[in-house]
Amino acid sequence: MKETISIRVNGRQHNIQVDDAKTPLLYILRNQLALNGPKFGCGQGQCSACLILLDGQPVSSCMIPASTAAGKEIVTIEGLAKDKNLHPVQEAFVEHQAAQCGYCLNGMVIAAVAILSEDPDPGEEVINQGMQRVLCRCGVHNRVKKAIDTAAKSLSR
Amino acid sequence: MEKVVSSARRKFLKRSGSLVIGIPFLPGCLSSTEGARTNVEPLQRDLDPTFVKAWLEILKDGTIRIFTGKMELGQGISVAVAQVAAEELNTDINKVSVRLAETEVTPDEGFTVGSNSIETSAMSIRYAAATAREQLLQLAAKQLKVTASDLHVKDGMVYQKGGKTISFYMLLDGKQLDVALNRKAKIKPKNQRQWVGKPIPRKELELMVRGEQVFIQDLRFEGMVHARIVRPASYHATLKKVNEDALRIAVPGIHKLVVNGSFIGLIAADEYDAVKGQAYLKKNTQWSVKHQLRVGESLQQQIEALPNEQESAIEKGNAFQPSKETIKATYFKPYIMHGSIGPSCALAIFKDGKLTIWSHSQGVYPLRKAISALVGLTDEQVHIKGVPGAGCYGHNGADDVAADVAILAMAYPGKHIRLQWSRSDEHGWEPFGSAMIMSLQAKLNSVGKISDWYGEIWSDTHTARPRAASNLLAAQYLSEPLTPQPPGWKGGSYRNAAPYYHIPNVNIDIRSFKGPLRTSALRSLGAYANIFALESFMDELAEKAGKDPVTFRIMNSTDERSVAVLERLRDITSKDTLSDGEGVGYGFTRYGNGAAYCSVAAKLTVTVNGEIKLRKLWAVIDAGEVINLDGLKNQTEGGMIQAASWTLKEAVKYDETHVTSLNWNSYPILRFTEIPEVHVTVIDRPSEQPVGAGEAAQGPTAAAIANAVYQASGKRIRSLPIPKIPS
């Protein structure tokens, strides 16, 4: 008994058929829409590897049942670049080489975009609080903070 | 199965199985050539590492393809080997692509461990490229009938001064160079270098921020199915009963349940069905739990009470004679975990008698040997392709998940199976870094220098990599179980146990025990705990000698490179001012007593409540000749942050049954609000051998923090972690 769920991802409408409407959005995005950005990290909303923007808010897609996402606007890291041009946050992460293994990069970039859309000139405290949910094990946090600073300047130009 | 809108479907099909494994440097050339091979038979290659062609190939489009037997772990080895090759062949780095570890395709370079990929793989590639350049010039001289000294190479071409040109590819007539690698080939002079030593960015970051396929977790194949494993209730549990009928009623999407002894795996077309099946069986499977873990006493007490095998590891000068002047201190480090952000993952298909595995293992060749023995195939029947996973920092679940999926593939042939470990699989079953006790004694001479040193190191093994099938986790739970090999090499336990100072008499004994938890290699092995102890003890000795900590280290050093990293660090930190409750502490190592020199300083505040706020970490590192400046800095910054997390927060917890640190709430690591500033200064020594640096900062960071706590609070903490100061 398949159920059809209508979701909007990166500006495009998708009618997804699922066996179980409780299927976490993460699996829908990765397996049905073949998106790589949101990563499986913990499945418990603790690490933010799977972060997406749901109606502009950063949420862990492993914790969102597909049915809850119906009718909402979803943006993944794949939807940030405009054609070939990277989003200023993406650009700044590349510029600062703000990664080692890069597995947490999805959550870092999405959380940073969310911070800057709320506060175009965030101080260190706002950045830290906004990024607190995203775990990194390689230890590139300081590079991430520099990248967010650079992106903030570039966005305000 | 699922109906997908057409555009996404097309994208899906286009991407199926076409992961780019090589690290391409041009966004335009990312697609087919390298990646298409994920689906086809491997290249027929001659892999004799003493020949140039094992390491590099000249391609028709003028690009150079490098083959490294090492794995990209986020340490940036791909760009480093591209740099040395581009340098020697005088080629734009964008014309160099890199193929990572793959059986039958790249040379067998064992495991990607010990921070030695620069010393081994990159140096082989450097000389292979230099040999290639010499050979190509000679060939061109012959063909163009000119002298080789009138020729030079650039971007895949040979040029004659003001005259003829010919491409490498044409020169070789489409073949590869069939010459021995010359370890004495002339290397490009340092003052002419264009790529080596520069902070060349890693281009794969752009792929990552675009959400392109980079990781093993992103591999997809047509008709691929999803698997999960149900681990036993404890290390020594055996399966009593699994109810397959009930499982199929609860989760009808399960295609296959594989039960072999106490090993349970399940397969479904839909990933969420596999997740639900795993959750169902975790709750509803009966196990017989045979051995209970001991709790109720401190881990340190427990280790001291365990049987152990004592042996002398280092004997230099006279045996240690305790006297009333002997200074003693004992230090402790608990079990800590790798804690990869992406739980381990592997894919496999068994088809036409051949088992193909995609793995983020650190050693595809040793893993192939272990897996072929485990599943009863010949080495030739097993092909393993290395694909990057999340950072592993040592021997995590990467090999075990590959063995798991191999067992499932043999039981369910013909389909690509993707096995994703859960967070609790990884936290609960990865081999941890061993708990250790370091009991140290020393004597000072009349001028305050160290004359005698004795260390007694208690440790479980730091080396249980899959050199044999029995070291693969699943092997212990099959119906015909294999018993893990007793640990052989014990060098990990006393790595950096002997001080890298000038001390006439040094004796180190190790006491090897088998502790309650599974252990293997974690970044820097025993060096993290040994340097924490040794460099904490150095501060204690400095105080007895009436010297400041840095001066005391320098006066006990005779290696000028040690002195240089210490003096530079003192200069840098002397510019910083301290407020009330703040302290600065220092730590030093020469990693493995033969690789990078690294000094670290920590500045922190101890609040009136005993809370520790880590403010800043500085490092000065000398890794010989610098290959990639930004890569070296990044590794050192990250090493300090990770070590700070270990030192301030981390200890694996367990109860009578099993590990209880099963997620990031029960095993917290440093988050953004706790991250200190980091500053890394690099001393480049172009005339010294380049050495790996990825593990150098771990130990000195721990000691610097403990020493800073002492400076700030007067409390000497000898037991890790140090979440706060006991009142």
UniProtKB/TrEMBL annotation, chain A:
UniProt keywords (A-Z) are: 2Fe-2S, Iron, Iron-sulfur, Metal-binding, Oxidoreductase
Q: Give the matching Pfam families.
A: Fer2 (PF00111), Fer2_2 (PF01799)
- SUPFAM superfamilies in the record: 2Fe-2S ferredoxin-like, CO dehydrogenase ISP C-domain like
Organism superkingdom: Bacteria
Domain named 2Fe-2S ferredoxin-type is located at 3-80
Kindly indicate whether the keyword Magnesium belongs to this entry.
no
Quote the protein name from its UniProt record: (2Fe-2S)-binding protein
Where does this protein come from, organism-wise?
Agaribacillus aureus
Automatic annotation (TrEMBL), chain B:
Alphabetized InterPro entries for the sequence: Ald_Oxase/Xan_DH_a/b, AldOxase/xan_DH_MoCoBD1, AldOxase/xan_DH_MoCoBD2, AldOxase/xan_DH_Mopterin-bd_sf, N-heterocyclic_Hydroxylase, OxRdtase_Mopterin-bd_su_IorB
Pfam families, per the entry:
MoCoBD_1 (PF02738), MoCoBD_2 (PF20256)
Residues in domain Aldehyde oxidase/xanthine dehydrogenase a/b hammerhead? Answer: 210-291
Write down what this protein is called.
Answer: Molybdopterin-dependent oxidoreductase
Q: Which organism is it from?
A: Agaribacillus aureus
Q: Lineage of the native species?
A: Bacteria, Pseudomonadati, Bacteroidota, Cytophagia, Cytophagales
